[in-house]
Amino acid sequence: MATVLSRALKLPGKKSPDLGEYDPLTQADSDESEDDLVLNLQKNGGVKNGKSPLGEAPEPDSDAEVAEAAKPHLSEVTTEGYPSEPLGGLEQKAASSLVSYVRTSVFLLTLGISMILVLLCAFLIPCPPRDLHSTWSRHLGSQGGGDLSPLELADVNGDGLRDVLLSFVMSRNGSAVGGSRPAANLVCLSGMNGSTLWSSLLPEEARDITCLELMPGSLAETVCLVTGTHKMLSAFNATSGKAIWTLNPNYLSNGTLAAPVVVLPDLDEDGVRDLVVLAIGELQPDLCFLLVSGRTGSPVGRPVKYNIVGVGNLIGPQVYITTNGAVYILFGFGNIQAVALRDIFVQAQNRDSSPPSLQIEEPEWEKRRSINLSELIDVYSDGVELLQMVKAPDSNCSNLLITTRQGLVLLRGQNLTPYWTLRLQGLRSQPTPGYFTDDQTLDFLLQIQDGVGMKKDIILGTEPPSLHHLYLLHPAFPSILLDLANTTGTVTASEVGINDLWKDAFYVTRTTGPSSEGHPAALVVSKLSLRWALMEGQMAQLQESTPKIGRGELRRFLSRIKFVEAPYEI
Question: Which residue ranges does UniProt annotate as crossing the membrane (predicted)?
Fold first, then answer.
């Protein structure tokens, strides 16, 4: 009856040695041994759960053996019944976790430092001001006369944009009381928006404004040299507008300044480049050179006089440095003559010696001295109107481009022989150098007067002469003229500059409006971005082309134009 009940209830008790009998005393041991039978993976891939991998193990002969087999071993099972790993495996896993943690920490640390550096650069390093379209116009009031309109471009505030410097004669109400000459004003306008950066009073009308660095080196300050129409020569700090020095007019004796100041190499060896001015008396032969210190504005010696006679415009003075390093001064009246800077220095100092830099001679130039070994060297004498220095290709010197009443002549700077001559009548403007063809050779754009209001290189049309235009003619589209801007005022001066940061060019004009009795002409300074003007300009068809060029095609071409500094020098 007990056996039947045990089988019916499927009690997990242990069999008695006698078949069909249930032994309740071994119930606890039986339960414990069954619970402790776990799978244990062996090295050979077998399974150990009381049976051999190859077969079934024999049953234990006694309860002691069963109890002994049921005891867990630390090397085989864990307290939770899962197989344990060797101690070496635990150490490897711990080391792997440490390496992963270090890698993650280093990555996050590097990422954080990078983000901090980016934020610092964004907030601490100022971004260069974007010039936008750089188009502005500034009314400076009424101009009180004056025949000259000096204009200069220079970056005076370090913002990367070239600013505008100009001088104008103030109205009579602004003149100095009791002064024999009307006072003038030197003004510097911001290239960004046309605002006034600084202004300084001048004792007379300015003839020329030249801004440059007189002291070599990256930390040198920009200095603006202002030459007057009478006896004024002053140097101004370009950043503040304050006068650094002014030449004492008594050193010019009875002469007046005939041309803008010319910058020379350092003559007195004080680390600053020096200057020379050309003064002329009431009679033309009374002409003299005066060397001036670039540091103090004091004369470097006495004036050096030359007696020359010529007919025509005053040419120069201009400094020319040959391939060998010899320095000459070019000047003349309707002609071009040269004098060695060495000769001027020796006479100014009243001594026979000169600095080593001035002792160099150019043999081909020295051959042109006259028979009596005069200090003057004849360069060209045939109705000279203009003289330009053009950088010679593959050379460290320049060629001489001479505009005459009969045409153009290009002289080689090395030996003063003609490179080519062009006979052309009616040339009334200064030739503009540039690369207008695909041969990579420097060309010259000429404007030839051909009737009233007409020129051979462009067609002005029948509009009133009081309307002045700024045109663009590109070699890729010779049949299209682009009208960039126009004004009703009289353009008295203009300058073109390059914005290297944005690969853009800008055009600065100085214009005066109409004047009437008792009302002086208004002075206006304007700046125009050429890339912006190219997109807004009006297209004029000079002649029909095949195929016909559309506005969209032209705009796509113009949008790719970038402006950079030209490789040649003038």
Answer: 106-125
